[in-house]
Design a protein that fits this description.
Strand 20 and strand 21 form a beta hairpin. The termini are far apart. Helices cover 25% and strands 25% of the residues. The protein has 13 helices and 22 strands. The chain has a 9-stranded mixed sheet. Strands 13-14-15-16-18-17-19 form a 7-stranded mixed sheet. Helix 4 packs parallel to helix 6.
């Protein structure tokens, strides 16, 4: 599978990632830094009130002992913390170190020093606040497919000074071979990835991370802000679940080996802890939960094609499915042990006096249904299989089935348990989600009562609803979707971007920042849409 280059060239690419190629187009300082071994900048994550994790990559012929230095000033006049860490070849020359003994709610500067005295770029990070906290801002990102365009969303956020924490909720990269997604015609020239084949083995995943982390805007985001990150499906393979993935077949080897390789590479290249789910405390303002909804316990997503296979009466089959298997309480998304952790955490957060309970996770939680108008959105000249899919989706909606079975909509019993737990805890729940490529604002409800709000973030570059419904205006799509989906309060189905979420003691304000373009390298915004929810209401305020 790796015979695309000779063994010597392959080892060199694995060690250096795309650094050798990228250095040709980088400024002199960056070229010099890469020649010295710091190939992919610095990053920080897993912040606490008194600690933070630091990350770098130092490529060398053997393991390298690095010194991490952390200071309250960029001149490093006084070292406030740090330590020693080894960039090991067996970890793809990456190094991670948790520095503790820090002050809460404080910005710090950090760097790594190599054995020969050369230094990495200087990074900036922030500890979480402790005690009474008046405001905290989270930047929400997901779905960054490098060949589709520039990471202008990262660039825009990196130019801001009012972000306390970045939350990346998945699809940090994509697993496909060159020419699959995007197609060669859709790919932006110059936005190249390695390896060119689909990533399956550990060396593949490592090299794909190296390619993405060579992007200057992504490097800059990591350099300036602490990032909490959770994988979604494409860090493994499309539509992954606990036993496999839609984009995995027997010819690609053992699934468990692929899963382990993907998880290992993620742990090496990202400033993340080894635990699959975790939480963070931002003073008395917010508890931020980071659950895992993909590979630990998720049952295989339903596929309407499988449900209807061999069935003559489509309407009756869908109706029976909607009333039985679809609502099976045994179906899992997070699993019993993780549910216990999250549900208990919601209750403990409220009892401690924390104002907001934030759940930053991968997939859309609000209910979205296929609108009747969509039957005319795809054109009359579509292939028969597309026409059939449109017809089935219309019939599914009439049976009360949702648009996307890969989201929480495909696991209604699991969603009901979570929202009921939030209500029981008297939580002020704010869900941050990604995956769908479009922007959404949902009021979440359970048993006829408000349960919280959802901030659905659009993608950094991956195409959304507009790519499949060309010729239909965003206004028409959104109007139809809102009419068919009562929980949906607002949507944008045409732009790329990110969301900044500002938490104060009485309100949460979501700002969807929509980019002008991703086809040229510019952070210019087309517009920003804002919505607010007042604490205690568990729904969005009226516009």
């Amino acid at each position: 599978m790796h015979q695309l280059w000779g063994e010597m060239d392959r080892r060199l690419l694995i060690k250096l990632g795309t650094a050798g190629l990228a250095a040709l187009s980088l400024p002199g300082t960056a070229r010099a830094m890469m020649a010295q071994g710091f190939t992919h900048g610095v990053a920080s994550g897993e912040p606490g009130a008194n600690s933070v994790m630091l990350w770098t990559r130092y490529a060398a012929a053997s393991d390298s002992a690095l010194t991490a230095e952390l200071s309250e000033s960029p001149d490093f006049a006084r070292i406030a913390g740090g330590g020693s860490v080894t960039a090991k070849g067996e970890r793809d020359h990456t190094a991670k170190l948790v520095v503790d003994g820090l002050e809460p709610g404080r910005w710090y500067f950090y760097r790594f020093v190599a054995p020969d005295g050369t230094k990495s770029v200087t990074g900036r990070t922030r500890t979480l606040p402790a005690g009474p906290t008046s405001a905290f801002t989270i930047a929400l990102f997901s779905c960054s497919n490098l060949p589709f365009g520039w990471f202008n969303a990262y660039a825009h956020a990196a130019a801001r000074n009012d972000i306390d924490l970045v939350a990346h909720v998945g699809d940090y990269l994509y697993e496909y071979k060159v020419g699959d997604y995007p197609s060669l015609a859709e790919a932006l020239p110059g936005r190249d990835i390695q390896p060119t084949q689909e990533i399956v083995a550990l060396a593949d995943y490592r090299l794909r991370y190296a390619a993405y982390r060579s992007d200057p805007d992504l490097q800059r985001l990591h350099q300036l802000f602490p990032v909490i990150a959770q994988w979604d499906d494409h860090e493994f393979a499309n539509d992954v679940w606990k036993g496999g993935a839609e984009n995995h077949n027997e010819g690609e080897g053992d699934w468990r080996a692929r899963e382990a390789a993907a998880e290992r590479a993620h742990g090496e290249w990202m400033p993340v802890a080894d635990t699959r789910w975790r939480h963070y405390q931002a003073g008395d303002l917010a508890t931020i939960f980071l659950p895992e909804t993909r590979i630990t316990a998720r049952d295989k997503p339903f596929e309407l094609g499988d449900i209807l296979e061999g069935k003559r009466d489509v309407v009756a089959t869908l109706k029976q499915f909607a009333e039985t298997d679809y609502r099976d309480p045994a179906r899992q998304l997070m699993g019993a042990s993780q549910e216990e952790w999250l549900f208990d955490g919601l209750g403990q957060s409220v009892k401690s006096g924390t104002r907001w309970q934030v759940c930053a996770q991968q997939i859309v939680m609000g209910s979205l249904f296929t609108p009747p108008e969509s039957r005319d959105w795809f054109g009359a000249d579509q292939p028969d299989y597309v026409k059939r899919r449109v017809e089935v989706s219309q019939l599914a909606a009439k049976a009360g089935l949702p648009l996307n079975m890969d989201s929480w909509d495909g696991y209604p019993a699991a969603r009901a348990r979570l929202l009921a737990a939030a209500q029981k805890a008297d939580a002020d729940l704010v869900t941050l989600s990604g995956d769908s490529h479009n922007a959404w604002a949902f009021d979440l409800a359970h048993d006829g009562r408000p349960a919280g709000v959802e901030v659905g973030g659009h993608s950094v570059t991956s195409p959304g609803y507009e790519a499949y419904t060309t010729g239909i205006s965003d206004a028409a799509r959104v109007s139809a979707l809102r009419h068919a989906s009562p929980e949906l309060q607002w949507a944008n189905t045409e732009d790329r971007g990110y969301v900044s979420v500002q938490l104060t003691r009485e309100r949460v304000t979501a700002n969807w920042h929509n980019l002008e373009t991703i086809r040229t390298h510019t952070p210019a915004l087309k517009e920003t849409h804002s919505m607010t929810a007042t604490r205690g209401r568990r729904k969005y305020d009226a516009a």
